[in-house]
Amino acid sequence: MSTPLLPPIGMLAELTHRCPLQCPYCSNPLELLKANRELDTETWLALFSEAADLGVLQVHLSGGEPTLRRDLEQLIAGLAGRGVYTNLITAGVGIVEGRVEAFAEAGLDHLQLSFQGARPATTDRIGNHKGAHEKKLETARRARAAGLPLTINAPIHRHNIEEVPEFIDLALSLGAERLEIANVQYAGWALTNRDQLMPEREAVDRQAEIVAEAQERLAGIINIDFVTPDYFAIYPKPCMGGWARDAFMVTPDGTVLPCHAAQTIPSLSFERFEPRRLSSIWADSPAFNAFRGTDWMQEPCRGCERREIDWGGCRCQAMAIAGDAAATDPACAKSPIHARMAMLIDEARRIATVPSREEAFVYRRIGAVTESA
Ligand code: SF4
Ligand code: FES
């Protein structure tokens, strides 16, 4: 049953946790790292070079807001020099004039721009940043003018799910080649804000119909990816394509993780690039090997025909809801506690519709989780 160890093909580099926005669904950890914990330029370049040696073909430059790194052009050029495909994941706010063009000049291959809403008021409110929507539109225009292929990313939740048709129009009007309708995954800040963010069942069903119709109608014009909401699913998604299977991520201080929320699994400890080499972390780290392949699985995953399709779903969701990172993801209908997902949806609805609790977000910022919402 062991799966042979293949080299990783993708890497997500969280260059910084700093960000001008405060989205309540951010996938960053609750303990955000300050600027003085970030790797310096030379160390990121050394890490990228090792990643390329290891087999990584594409790097997603993310954050926080990666454009806050003044050395971003240098980092892009370092990756491009090694022939690695680069995707910049940005909120598109506060990028000074000339920089998007400089990223393209340095060799950037693709830009992914998030919109918190299709309407300006929604974008500004969810990101807690006045004028954010207008700045994002400008970033999109500049990216297209610089010849960069553009993806619009729309994280979907209770407060913007009715804007899905407008997101489609927005992406078309900006000349995007791809739109991601990505229902929020409840990890990081989104788990803290789950009750406020969880959409209504009827809205989720409507959204699925709208997206399916648009995918058919706009085939060949724009690609629309649909990330379904786990809590309403029958089967889970293969989180990160399977634990330590073909991708990994690096936090701003160089900690190498199999996924965003891996540090919420208390039994695991994670290593940092320098002194450890990426190749040795990828192959030998006990944390990377903990849920690799299928040997770690319990029933019902162990005997399931889908075990090499979804790899048992999300380990961090199993930890958060079942209290056991090796349990079947509760999003799966075969999980003995699958019914708990429906209970959490109902509980969220009850809480979110209490007038005083509406939009009582814990906005993402350092120290916010110690305050009451
Ligand atoms: Fe996937 Fe496990 Fe559910 Fe099977 S039982 S569908 S492997 S999560
Ligand atoms: Fe960690 Fe899904 S976020 S496995």
Automatic annotation (TrEMBL):
InterPro entries: 4Fe4S-binding_SPASM_dom (IPR023885), Aldolase_TIM (IPR013785), Elp3/MiaA/NifB-like_rSAM (IPR006638), MoaA_NifB_PqqE_Fe-S-bd_CS (IPR000385), PQQ_synth_PqqE_bac (IPR011843), PqqE-like (IPR017200), Radical_SAM_PqqE_MftC-like (IPR050377), rSAM (IPR007197). Residues 5-222 form the Radical SAM core domain. GO terms for biological process: molybdopterin cofactor biosynthetic process; pyrroloquinoline quinone biosynthetic process. Signal peptide: none annotated. Its EC number is 1.21.98.4. It comes from the Bacteria. [4Fe-4S] cluster binds at residues 19, 23, 26. Pathway: Cofactor biosynthesis; pyrroloquinoline quinone biosynthesis. Binds 1 [4Fe-4S] cluster. The cluster is coordinated with 3 cysteines and an exchangeable S-adenosyl-L-methionine. It catalyses: [PQQ precursor protein] + S-adenosyl-L-methionine = E-Y cross-linked-[PQQ precursor protein] + 5'-deoxyadenosine + L-methionine + H(+). CDD domains: Radical_SAM (cd01335). Keywords: 4Fe-4S, Iron, Iron-sulfur, Metal-binding, Oxidoreductase, PQQ biosynthesis, S-adenosyl-L-methionine. Gene3D superfamilies: Aldolase class I (3.20.20.70). Its cofactor is [4Fe-4S] cluster. GO terms for molecular function: 4 iron, 4 sulfur cluster binding; cyclase activity; iron ion binding; oxidoreductase activity; S-adenosyl-L-methionine binding. Interacts with PqqD. The interaction is necessary for activity of PqqE. Catalyzes the cross-linking of a glutamate residue and a tyrosine residue in the PqqA protein as part of the biosynthesis of pyrroloquinoline quinone (PQQ). Belongs to the radical SAM superfamily. PqqE family. This is PqqA peptide cyclase.
